[in-house]
Amino acid sequence: MKIKSQKDFFAGLMFMAVGGAFAWGSTNYQIGTGARMGPGYFPLLLGVLLALIGAVVTFKATTVETEDGDPIGRWAWKPLVFILAANFAFGILLGGLPNLGIPPMGLIVAIYALTFIASLAGDQFKPLEVAILATILAVGSYAAFVWALKLQFQVWPSFIAG
């Protein structure tokens, strides 16, 4: 077996690993049937589907010829660091860290932080565009989660909301 596209081959392996892990993890929950789905039904289906997609991509990488073998490039460290940092900041700002004395700052602050930190991962940073995007995401999240779904969680920092 000769790998004809390294990128596709390793992406397919990654899809199969993640899909298999989700499918295996979903077996800890009740699966149910198609008519009466349990909490593990949807993750099981998604995991199996992702693993199947990975198998197809991996198979294609060994059968379809690419121009230069489609080698894997260097790791993109800057986007990786900023995207992970944005997600950590979102979680910390949304719920706080009581053990470290960091209070929850709420949904709106967390979304603005997430958007601004994640935007630093790209090659260009345009503050006005990022502010507009953050505002649209904050309004949309508030409308979807607080207004429409009536979920109960902190929207604003306690020193603002009282």
Automatic annotation (TrEMBL):
InterPro entries named in the record: DUF1468
Keywords: Membrane, Transmembrane, Transmembrane helix
TM region(s), chain numbering: 41-63, 75-94, 100-121, 128-149
Keyword Metal-binding: no
The UniProt record lists the keyword Membrane: yes
Short name of any one Pfam family annotated for the protein: TctB
Domain DUF1468: 10-153
Protein name as it appears in the record: Tripartite tricarboxylate transporter TctB family protein
Organism of provenance: Extensimonas vulgaris
Taxonomic path: Bacteria, Pseudomonadati, Pseudomonadota, Betaproteobacteria, Burkholderiales
